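In the lab's daily routine, each protein ends up as an entry in a very long ledger. A line of letters takes care of the sequence, but it says nothing directly about the fold. The fold becomes a row of whole numbers, each drawn from a learned catalogue of backbone shapes. The protein below has been through that process, and both of its lines are reproduced in full:
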Amino acid sequence: MGFVHPLVLWLLPLALLPILLERSNTKTYSWVAMLPADPLSNLIGLLLKILAAISLICIILGLAGPHSLEQKVERIGIGAQIGMVIDRSASMDDPFSGGTAEGRVGETKSVAAARLMTDFVNKRKNDMIGVVTFSNSAMYVLPLTESREAILAAIKATAGNSLFQTNIGGGLTSAVGLFEHVPDSGSRAVILISDGAGRVSAEVQQKLLDWLQRYNLSLYWVVLRQPGGVSIFDPKFEEHYEGILPSEVELYYYFKLLRSPFHAYEAEDPKSLAAAMADINQKEKKPIKYMEKIPGHDFTQLCYFIAALMIALLLSVKYLELRTWNTKI
């Protein structure tokens, strides 16, 4: 049992006043000993005092805001613990080629990504999802949570104006940190959505190599490809390429060396992005253990109802008492 305002409970001793104070009579007698003994009246008087004390107790408890505590119950469901890493560099404000899947023109990459990630979340009811964005540096948005409202609000916020550079290494290391103090449910993944790649230092590469394996994380990379841009799957980069590899191709080959599961996708328009998210949705449907939160029950209205009932009984008895005296006068 918990209370919203526990300090109000210090007023509970006031509930003893109706029991400790003597009842005042409406008639005065010169000598009380003249009155005959009346055990029934004494019992009724005691019960009335108890009713008054109960009404005061219920009022004070109601003011304190009583409620049962939140409970957590372990369930088995289909889903995953997912860290979303979303690019917020300036190029994410560029429009996708070909418009949207519904034929609308001019939808930017950031807006299309937010819309399709929202659809992704709405299809998955048992996931725990956290959100990290990055541009010049990583920006922590939301820890791993089951709250659909918080997740959807965090994703919606990523569709705003973007910033400058692309620090993928910072975004990924921050995303891995989301899982550090969260028990492993049995299925974990990081989804990276970007339209390019910056250079990742050797130190960050080693950290990711170790941490992804330590926390049992799969990595999905969705590349929002620029129209006519470099393809990470272009076979000319695979062997005997003498030039400097483009940053996204270099990052792709680094990801392939990870000891953790890795899948890459290229999306040139909203339709191909939707296909990539749908494939991730299918791959990450595994049995997991998760904790369902059962909210506590608020007992405030019950306390006020009992107090009102006690007061109504007292008023009814008082009304009968007055009627009795009036008939005897």
User: Anything to note?
Assistant: Strands lie at 2-3, 66-67, 71-79, 81-87, 128-134, 138-145, 188-194, 218-224, 262-267, 286-294. The chain has a mean pLDDT of 81. The chain has two domains: 2-25+38-69+296-328, 72-292.
